[in-house]
Amino acid sequence: MFYIELGLRHILDIEGYDHMLFLLALTLPMTFRDWKQTLWWVTAFTVGHSVTLGLTATEMVQLDGKWVELGIAVTIFLTGAFHLIRNFSVSNSGRYLALMFGAIHGMGFGSYYSFIAQNDVFWWAWLPFNLGIEVGQIALVVVLLFVYSILQKIGVQLKTIRLLLTGVVLTLSAQMILERIPNELF
User: Fold this and answer.
1) Residue 108 CB: number of other CB atoms within 10 A?
2) Are the C-beta atoms of residues 12 and 67 closer than 8 Å to each other?
3) What's the chain's Rg over C-alpha atoms?
4) What is the residue-wise DSSP string for 119-162?
5) What pLDDT, on the 0 to 100 scale, is given for residue 6?
6) How many CA atoms lie within 13 A of 105 on its CB side?
7) Which of 51, 65, 175 has the alpha carbon at shortest distance from 123?
8) Residue 155 region, left (φ>0) first, then alpha (ψ -120 to 50), else beta?
């Protein structure tokens, strides 16, 4: 239960708001009618995240953390831009985008995970930790879809909601990108 709770905290920690921002960007075209597609997209993100988390935590894959952090910010920006360009249409390509970008996000957490799950429990903790992540993501996405639904019920146009939230996603992720550009690029 400890590792499930830890996975939940990973998703819902406001200091790691980049994960929440990515989920916001990912769900921009979604409504409750699209629940199956939404579940596929969120699960694809978790699969990508889980695989690279395990690979980086075991040091099978090693990348400089500053580049991974920059990559995470870029994935958030690209996800928002992707949905804007596609006029917020829901398609199967979204799950592939979520899988690839989830892989980048998982690399950002690998070193922390290897610290919390020592060798003797590493893989036994990996599954419940990722289950906690999945539960947290689904809960957050349900809340987002619920908020979208309430806004629609009070008369706000879905297109307006999406454009406004896309502006938030693009602005915050652009700021993250600028903050995370490694010094050696200058």
Assistant:
1) 21
2) no
3) 17
4) GGGHHHHHHHHHHHHHHHHHHHHHHHHHHHHHHHHTT--HHHHH
5) 85
6) 30
7) 51
8) left
The per-residue pLDDT for range 26-49, each reduced to its tens digit, is: 999 998 888 888 889 999 999 999
What is the rounded distance in angstroms from the CA atom of residue 129 to the CA atom of residue 4? Answer: 5
Residues in the chain with pLDDT < 50?
Answer: none
CA distance 183 to 186: 6
20 and 134 in contact (C-beta within 8 Å)? no
Residue 184 to residue 186: CA distance in whole angstroms: 5
pLDDT at 90: 87
Q: What is the pLDDT of residues 100-112, one digit of tens each?
A: 999 999 898 766 6
Contact in structure between 103 and 44 (CB atoms under 8 Å):
no
Residues making up the chain, counted from first to last: 186
- Round to whole Å and give the CA distance between 7 and 17: 14
Two structure tokens written together for 122: 């590493």
Integer Cα distance of 85 and 8 in angstroms: 32
End-to-end CA distance of the chain: 46
What does the block give as tokens for 176?
Answer: 């993250």
Amino acid type, 146: F
